[in-house]
Specification:
mainly alpha, 3 helices, Cytoplasmic protein
């Protein structure tokens, strides 16, 4: 995450309540917004385990 309370943290490691906040306020424009929206959908639907294989790379 490039800014805010969770600056320096991987987007995949952001807490669900923070992703939910972005979803309610609107995601920022550009790639960061697309990544946050994707992570929100992944987290919201209980699919966070799909990220694990990518971490091992």
């Amino acid at each position: 995450m490039p800014y805010g309370k969770y600056k320096g943290r991987l987007i995949a490691d952001l807490p669900g309540h923070y992703l939910n906040w972005f979803a309610s306020q609107g995601f920022p424009p550009g790639e960061i917004g697309r990544l946050l929206a994707l992570m929100h959908e992944t987290d919201h639907n209980g699919l966070s385990s799909l990220i694990e294989p990518l971490r091992k790379r």
